[in-house]
Amino acid sequence: MKVGITGANGYVGSRIRKQLGSAGHETVGLLRRPSSQEDRQFTLGAPVSPKVIQDLDAIVHAAWDFAAVGRSTMSVNRDGSLPLIRSAASQGKRVILVSSMSSFEGCRSWYGRAKLDLERAVHDGGGACFRAGVVFGPAAGGIFRAIQSAVQEGTTVPIFGGGHQPLSVSWDRAVGDLTEHLVGTKDLPNRTILAAHPAPMTLRSLVEEIGVATGHDVRMVSVNWRVGWFALRLLELARRSTSFRSDSLMALTHPMPARQRALLEPSPVAFPPLQATLWHTNEELEPEE
Amino acid sequence: MNARAFDTDRVIVIGSGPSGVAATSALLGRGARVLMLDAGHRADPSSEALKHRLSVTLPDHWQDADIASWKFKPPTGSTIGQKAWFGSSFAYDPPPAVDVDYGQTGFRSSFALGGFSNVWGATLLPYSERELRDFPLTGTDLDCHYQAVLQLLPYSAQYDRLSHRYPLYSSNYVPLQASRFSSVLIHRLARYSSKQRRNILEFGRARLAVRATTGERTSGCIYCGRCLDGCPYDHIWSSAQSVREFADHPNFKYVGDFVVDSVSEDATGATVIGRDRNGPCQWHTDARLLLAAGAVGSARILLNSRLVPETLVFRDSQTIFAPFFWVGRRDISTDSTTLAEVFLSLNDPRISHNSVQLQVYPSNDSLGTRAQQAMPHLAFLFRRLGWAFSHVVPVIAYLHSEDSDSASARLCSGRLTLREVENPRKEQVMSALWRRLLPTMARVGLVSLPRLAVAAKVGEGFHFGASLPMGLDSAPGTSDLLGRPSGCKRVHVVDSSVLSSVPGGPITLTVMANAHRIASTVELEEPE
Lengths: 289, 528
What we know:
The complex is a heterodimer of chains A (289) and B (528). In chain A, helix 4 (110-124) links the parallel strand 5 and strand 6. Chain A has 289 residues and is of the alpha/beta class. Chain A starts with a strand and ends in a 10-residue tail after the last helix. In chain A, 40% of the residues lie in helices and 17% in strands. Chain A has helices spanning 11-22, 50-53, 72-90, 110-124, 142-152, 172-184, 203-214, 225-237, 246-253, 258-262, 276-279; strands at 2-6, 26-31, 40-41, 58-61, 94-100, 128-132, 134-136, 157-160, 166-167, 169-171, 193-195, 201-202, 220-223. In chain B, a hairpin with a 2-residue loop joins strand 8 (269-276) and strand 9 (279-285). Chain B has helices spanning 18-29, 45-55, 64-70, 139-150, 180-194, 239-246, 295-305, 365-374, 379-384, 386-389, 424-443, 508-521; strands at residues 4-8, 11-14, 34-37, 100-101, 201-205, 252-255, 259-266, 269-276, 279-285, 289-291, 311-316, 319-326, 342-346, 356-360, 392-398, 406-412, 415-421, 446-448, 454-455, 464-465, 491-493. In chain B, helix 1 (18-29) runs parallel beside helix 12 and helix 4 (139-150) packs across helix 12 (508-521). Chain B is globular and about 65 Å long. Classes of the chains: A alpha/beta (289), B alpha/beta (528).
């Protein structure tokens, strides 16, 4: 099958692309600045030319513009994704949305709210959505990479909101397997899929496990989340770039209620718990031929 | 009137509670043919209908009227440990023909299909060597039976500090999502105990017979927070579920509506005398008879049968219900289970040479109702201080039977009569427990409300048995390693009656493992 992937240069997107490719699918990156022959031009918010998706069988939507902070997430990411989702649906293409555990009914983060609206649009068009947690793997990005480097550099890790809130973890390879399953399967679930290990961890246990696996003593300091959020928000308003956004902090400190989580569609692909063997290896870092 | 008599070559199991189900599963696994005789009371049709209505929708769509009629209503004349099943007290209701004088005790006998497992707290924990001290068994004798029994149940657990002393025995477990409260409590306990010189505290997440959602297409607990009133979705295991699963097995036969009066045995086999819907009748088997009617039920049958001495002593694990005030953030009460969340084991020789087991529950509405019921003089406080009440955490402590009151059981003109027997050690252990426990709990943010602690009546915690303790010698009033009362060859008691003592803490898993052990070991051909 021919699968278009938005955000194919990002961590999760590239991981998915690699796995779809090795499973025998033809992958097409839908990128802002396509750099190779097979990739095509796609920008969040811009009208989607029919030619871009015409010959694709499915589209995996993993793109997200993290430069948009605060309320502008809604206009840039949500409103920017809708044209693609709608035109793909109208042409009968299967859309698979990479959503997040930050997204749930009643969530407070802009990121979560935008994803939730997109999930609805994708389901309306007959597509499938899955919610991934903190994605980990040998070449992890995002929150996992941030915590990993903080631990390895010996920096004190700030813990917001007590650090006892549930935190879901998703192995990147399982995310890829799930996507591959959804691209090929005949019966798409009409509920959003839980793409994470069934038992959530806590932020503290995640930091501790990374510390144990890398042999570093971890120092954690508890910080009131409101203080942290306010500080990050001020920086964002001052247009300073921050490695961690206020919106992510909001998502981290206001996790999905247990009941909503339990009602998600169980994944058809098994998600393992966080194990050092699954991420603490460099074999996969080597460039592919 | 002549009793109708039936003959069978099957092994007869009396009772459908956890021990009956564990024994049956072992027998079926060996290829034996099983006949389960059971009083088999079902819930009132209105409760069944209520459960059905609740089960077909999600909590958000439950009708207000249904929730109102479901709300915890204590059965009349109930004690603090009793729970209703969708408003029905069928798990405790005796049939009209059975008359037991319980006196002031909290002991009860269940005639329900599934016995007390319809209303249990679903806690699972094996006994360690320490708890098995009084038993003529070692932990390794039960190991494979713990493993087998855990295959019958949904098992929510996780590997943690508790696993060193209490192995998980199965890799087939899925943890329930922990509430923030229990995560914080475990974190504080870990910090506290790392600073202690002596390690007198063992703790970990509660292990429960509850189905948690897994990643493999099965649905599980959705955290509606109504566990104590009955689970509409059957995610809390009861042995009635296993009986329904056995129904498809070609070697299994179930006869309900049968109340056993007595049993007897002779060279040709064993006979069960009782009544069904149509009057007196009896079942004869030329194989074995496994008695799993629950400690009180089995005692009634054995005393009627004159297979045991005139007086039996029930040992009870004394239960103390104590509210604590939680210094810390509270969760939304409906976003967790309302079963035990944290297990604590206190091993302090200054309290007792037996360990004291504690179960910490999250606070919730129905527990509030229960607490008000236990402390009616403080009801005005509960009403006014709603916010404060949401910080009240119920803790249940279980003492070893050696440190608890017990009860004697005998037949008085044909009627089973129970009387409390006080134990002078109890007060001593309880006051020592309080003195040692409160400072520890305060360090982890659980401030005691000591005057509000209620010691349950003997039997009220439903952790009782050891009325016919297994021993190596076959003295009258004891049973052998296969649960046979002294002198018996074919009649085996497999429920909590044959425990050698009742250590504090969850009892069901060990009772089931022991029943499984006996049923796996008995000679199925001819008695030796």
